[in-house]
Design goal:
Length: 259
C-alpha cells in the first residue's frame, strides 16, 4: 500500500486499483493537497498498462463531505481562478479505464462533484448526496451544475443546487444519479467485485465503450452513432474479439490479452 498525505493507493490485484481519501478528522473534506494528490495519482494511471479499473472511495462514514471551507473562506476571486481546480478534476474524468465511485455516508458539494467524474456510482442505503454550496453563499463550480444536469436532467439539478438539500441513495438512484444501491456495509465489496468483473473483460472493448459513451453524450445523435459504428468496426481488428467469439462457440472461458 502506498501512502501519501491523505490519499491511499492500494493494489488488490487483477488489474484493479483502490484509491481512498483518508482525512477522517475532516470528514474527508477536499483541501488543495488532496485535490492535487488525487490528480497526480490519476495522471500516473495513464501510463499503467496493467490497469483495468479504478475504485475511488472514502471511509465507511464519509465519501467526501465537500470542499474544505477553511481553504476558501479568505480566498479571493483571482486566487480561486489560479488554483485551476478544473485541471485537477480533469485528471480523474480523463482516466483511460473505468472509474467506480463507492459512496458510503456523505457525498456533498465537491464530494459529489468528485463522484460525478466517475463512470459508475455505487452507494450505500444510508448515503446522503447533495450540492449545498448555495447555503454558504456560493454555487457548485466543479461540475455540480453541468455534470449533474447531464446526469439527472434540468429539474432535478435545479432542485438540488437551488435548495442545497441532501437526498438519500434510493432517491438518487431513482433520478439516475446512482448506478446501484447496496447495503451500507457492502459498498466497497460490491465496487471491488464489479471492478474485478470489468477488469476481466477485453480491455480495448471496455476502453472504446467508455470513450464513445462520454464523447457521444454531447454530440448530435448522428455523430454519436457514427462514433459507435467506427468503434465497433475497430474492435473487429482485435485478437480479443476473435478469442471472445471463439470461446463463446466452444463454450469455454475466454482468455483476453488486450490486443
Amino acid at each position: 500500500m502506498e501512502t501519501t498525505d491523505a490519499v491511499l493507493v492500494e493494489r488488490p490485484g487483477d488489474g484493479v486499483v483502490l484509491v481512498r481519501i483518508n482525512r477522517p478528522e475532516a470528514r474527508n473534506a477536499l483541501n488543495m493537497a488532496v485535490r492535487r494528490r488525487l490528480a497526480e495519482v490519476f495522471r500516473d494511471f495513464a501510463d499503467d498498462k496493467a490497469l483495468r479499473c479504478v475504485v475511488l472511495t472514502g471511509s465507511e462514514k464519509t465519501f467526501a463531505a465537500g470542499a474544505d471551507i477553511r481553504d476558501m473562506v479568505d480566498a479571493s476571486a483571482i486566487e480561486m481562478y489560479l488554483r485551476h481546480n478544473e485541471r485537477l478534476w480533469g485528471a480523474i474524468a480523463d482516466c483511460p479505464v473505468p472509474v467506480i465511485a463507492a459512496i458510503s455516508g456523505y457525498a456533498l458539494g465537491g464530494g459529489l462533484e468528485l463522484a460525478l467524474n466517475a463512470d459508475i456510482i455505487i452507494a450505500g442505503r444510508g448515503a446522503k448526496l447533495g450540492q449545498p454550496e448555495v447555503k454558504v453563499g456560493i454555487m457548485p463550480g466543479a461540475g455540480g451544475t453541468q455534470r449533474l444536469t447531464r446526469a439527472v436532467g434540468k429539474y432535478h439539478a435545479m432542485r438540488l443546487t437551488l435548495t442545497g438539500e441532501a437526498i438519500g441513495a434510493e432517491e438518487a438512484f431513482a433520478m439516475g444519479l446512482v448506478s446501484k444501491v447496496v447495503e451500507d456495509g457492502a459498498v466497497l465489496q460490491e465496487a471491488l467485485a464489479m471492478a474485478r468483473h470489468i477488469a476481466g473483460l477485453p480491455p480495448v472493448a471496455v476502453a472504446q465503450i467508455k470513450e464513445v459513451v462520454i464523447q457521444g453524450e454531447d454530440a448530435s445523435l448522428a455523430a454519436a452513432l457514427m462514433l459507435e459504428r467506427k468503434a465497433l468496426q475497430l474492435l473487429f481488428a482485435t485478437a480479443d474479439k476473435k478469442e471472445g467469439m471463439q470461446a463463446f462457440l466452444e463454450k469455454r472461458s475466454p482468455r483476453y490479452t488486450g490486443r
